Amino acid sequence: MSTLFDLSFYVTVPFWALMILAPTWRRTRPIIASPWIVAPSLVIWAIVAIPVLGTLGSLVTSPSLAALTDAATDPAVLTALWAQILAWDLFLGRWIYLDSRDRDIHPVLMGPLLVGTILLSPIAFPIYLVLREFARRDTPRHQVDRGVTVA
Fold it and tell me: Which positions, given as ranges, span the membrane (predicted)?
């Protein structure tokens, strides 16, 4: 189980590295544009979650702190939750990267913010939303329309 736990992180690293270390490389955007970049984490999630699907199902249909605390003693449940968190963070980081490139927000500013998304996405995401509002004010209206590049 420890190997799958570790692997769920390592399969996301190449995508984070592209967004943070090579944001303007001509191949980064096409790779990151695919929502399938989260698939490796989700495959690991499925491998680990299927045997404990009953436990996970109970946690989401009748959530309680006591049930979650009890389930957290099972390495398979924790590994499944970890893989899910990593997949979500990568998907969110993907959106932030693509949106920031559309808005021409400088990669030097975005690198630390993307690292923050890996570490604490609930903090980094609202920070990006604020940054995005300032970028919107500086971006000509013909370039950005509801977050989609049109010109």
Answer: 7-25, 37-56, 76-97, 109-131
